[in-house]
TrEMBL record:
<dbReference type="Pfam" id="PF01991">
    <property type="entry name" value="vATP-synt_E"/>
</dbReference>
<keyword id="KW-0813">Transport</keyword>
<dbReference type="InterPro" id="IPR038495">
    <property type="entry name" value="ATPase_E_C"/>
</dbReference>
<keyword id="KW-0406">Ion transport</keyword>
<comment type="similarity">
    <text>Belongs to the V-ATPase E subunit family.</text>
</comment>
<dbReference type="GO" id="GO:0046961">
    <property type="term" value="F:proton-transporting ATPase activity, rotational mechanism"/>
</dbReference>
<dbReference type="InterPro" id="IPR002842">
    <property type="entry name" value="ATPase_V1_Esu"/>
</dbReference>
<protein>
    <recommendedName>
        <fullName>V-type proton ATPase subunit E</fullName>
    </recommendedName>
</protein>
<dbReference type="GO" id="GO:0033178">
    <property type="term" value="C:proton-transporting two-sector ATPase complex, catalytic domain"/>
</dbReference>
Amino acid sequence: MNANDLSRQIQKIVRFIRQESEEKANDISVSAEEEFNIEKLQLVETEKKKIRQEYERKENQVEVRKKIEYSMQLNASRIKVLQSQDDVVTSMKDAARKDLLSVSRDHPAYKNLLKDLIVQSLLKLKEPAVLLRCRKDDVYLVESVLDSAKEEYVEKANVHIPEVIVDYHVYLPPAPSHHNAHSQSCSGGVVLASRDGKIVCENTLDARLDVVFHKKLPEDPSSIIILLPMGGLPLLLYMTNVFQICLPVHSIHKLDVFPQIRRSILLNKDHWVTSFLHARILDHPLSSCTQPEKTTESVLTAEGMSDSLMSGGSDPVAAS
């Protein structure tokens, strides 16, 4: 082998090595590019996932804040509605309580009312001896009807004439006045108690109003029937936590409301407040009272009386 052949052989080997090196370098470059792209895609997807998670977290936070704010506003609205209902009903009760003062001013009617209240209380107690308390201004009226009340009681209960002692030392509070607006007051009526004081029958007009007021309130606190003046005519306002509906008087007959309230509205449009609450008082029937079951210390207040007075019969308040 001469020098030329050897040189060609060496060049051939060099070209082969160079070609193989270039191929290897190209493979390494392609592989590195692929690995780079894969790593880049992985990093991009990871960051995208983080960004999506962050936005989802923020969206959830926004939704939670919206729900909390909505719930707070809803509760605040409900409280506002309930407070408004309570304010209106309380004002109506106060108006009716003021109107009770006119009952005692009509002496003939009030005299008959006192007699009926005394008879009713005696029927409730059925005691041989009772203590009677009234307002100081009503003493002469009570004394004038006491004998006839005892006779009526004896006739109805078929018992001996009871001993009724009028308490001249302790009187019921006087009628409310502007001078003593915050002091105790009584619009009229009587309080009878057994001799030992263990059984008390509070049959005052104020106690009767309180009993009827609580008995006639709707059982569902989310709704209440209220009368409001608008344009000189009464309206029926049915309030709920969601909506309010105002109906004129001529539409009231379509509603399933208390018949006595509907009748009072239609017949007494000029005195809608007092007529509404008078309907709740005057249409509250009282029956002849039954003998209470006596316990060691049983106390019969007006509210205790109301359970047995709801069954029907003659109501001395309605009779007045």
